[in-house]
Write a structure and sequence with these properties.
single chain, alpha/beta, 5 strands
Length: 144
């Protein structure tokens, strides 16, 4: 069962899918996407929440515009795709469920987490700066 009518949240889904995120709607979608954990993956738990998500999505978009970025971009929508969200959260271990939130995984290991309390009340540019710092640290190209 979903919390909101799909037409109401479709634009919020599109804010991420339009910039390259793969939306995962079922637990099986999550498992299939996480089968090969090599490289870096940004896993975003999207949400309807106006107090935090309204700045999270633009912050994510800005963070991806320049510099290092994750190899894969994945998203689930809390309150809409419950099974997918529960399954995605099994990869965001050590943190209480929150939405919106985002985890950066490197080779399947969670290396960075931004929870709702780190998003709420902050402007998109500040969220982007924190994400860019994490991307530079974990997604940057290493010289051989």
């Amino acid at each position: 069962m979903t919390m909101y009518p799909e037409p109401m949240i479709a634009p919020m889904r599109a804010e991420l899918t339009s910039i390259g995120f793969q939306e995962l709607r079922t637990a099986a979608d999550v498992e299939a996407a996480m089968q090969n954990p090599a490289g870096t993956t940004l896993l975003v738990v999207n949400s309807m929440c106006g107090c935090a998500a309204r700045n999270a999505r633009p912050g994510i978009a800005r963070a991806l515009q320049q510099g290092a970025r994750p190899d894969r971009l994945l998203t689930v929508f809390a309150g809409q795709d419950g099974d997918a969200t529960r399954q995605a959260r099994t990869y965001l271990t050590g943190y209480a469920p929150s939405s919106p939130s985002m985890g950066l995984l490197k080779d399947g290991e969670l290396v960075y987490m931004m929870e709702r309390w780190q998003i709420e009340g902050r402007p998109a540019d500040a969220i982007a700066a924190d994400l860019q710092e994490a991307f530079e640290k974990y997604c940057g190209v290493t010289a051989s």
